[in-house]
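hey so i finally got around to running the thing on that chain from the lab meeting. sorry it took forever, my laptop kept dying and i had to restart like 3 times. anyway pasting the input first so we r on the same page abt which one it is
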Amino acid sequence: MRSLEKLPKPEVLEINEQGWLADYLSDKTNATKRYRYRDPDIKRQLKEETGFKCVYCESKIGHNTPGDVEHKIPSSKDESKHFDWNNLTIACTECNRRKNDYYKEGEEFLDPYSDDVEQWLEHHGPLVYWKAGNVRAEITIRKLELNSEARAQLVFRKIEKLDGLANLVERWNSEKNPTLKSLLYLQISEMVSAKSEYSAMVLSVLRSKGITQA
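ok and heres what got predicted. didnt touch it at all, straight out
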């Protein structure tokens, strides 16, 4: 999980938010009125701000899922935020399904848009844990089963990423040609970019190796 900044509200939502909300509240069983937040422009903007990744597990959207629009505060808890831009983000189907309609004030999921998530979580290889005493971080990890056998595919993909990183770092350390060494370092830096898959894990590994400038 990486810290994120909210992009501007899409024009289609700026124009229609209040009308859409009124329509939804007047007829909540109508699928067309309920799911207007799935508008392509809205979903595209959400993907852009998360780097086309799940906001929670950092899996690239498109590997196994087109991505689900996620309500940080579920509509079942606060209907007024059903189309609220600041309440919307993007998540993979696996994370979205596990979060479901969970929300408890004071014990809510970590919010990458407002919380210092990179300081509240710690990575041990492909597994992510919470800093001791951080209840919200622990709830987030446990509810999403990020370290569970149920998320084996996620863990295996993160292991593959770590294998690629290890090979790249080894090559960079041993490379004598300055040009090649610079290109290898650039590739390592790209893996740390907030828009790269599992970049929080990669950043943690590099810091443990004393590579802090990538």
